# Entry
Amino acid sequence: MAVSELTIRPRIVVFGGTFDPIHNGHIAIARCLRDELMAEKVLMVPAGRPWLRDASPIASPEDRLRLAGLATRDEDGIEVSDVDVVRQGTTYSIDTIRDLKAIYGDNYEFILAVGTDAASTLRRWHCYDELITVCTIAVVERPGQPVVIGTHLPPDTISIRGPMVDVSASNIRWMYACGDVGVAADYVPALTHRFIIDNRLYRCDPT
# Structure
């Protein structure tokens, strides 16, 4: 086939997570995915009932969806999808990709972004063989933890060096629970912070 006959499909990057709460580190990763992969859009997909977690998220799926929407309101090329929240039952990545392909059609190339920890268990994921045929895997490396593409990852896996952001959702929840709302505000987008305060999502002080 001649090069002129090749069709280059626009990319949609699927970035899922509990986002409990979404924070500046998540936004930095989404921007990195958008820019490094030259994606038309990054879809941040808050999980409904994630199957790989022993404990349920603290905030409800609806609140986490709202937080993500507020955090990405002014971000070019970064959007939020509710496909995992509106679906009943356990959340599997294959269902996320199937639903998004049904919405956006086959004119897009879908890339599923995962972290290094998730990448190490990829072969245990539900419908793994189908998953790697309907999307490409992109592993976001943690600083100092390069990814080795081996037998546990498909050969077409993309490795991306993630941004250096030292923040975790669990620490942020602890800050809100302890009333350190001023410190927590440094780690989450402003509209997200205000929603958490107004709704006391993590038992924070209403100040």
Q: What stands out?
A: The radius of gyration is 17 Å. The mean pLDDT is 88.
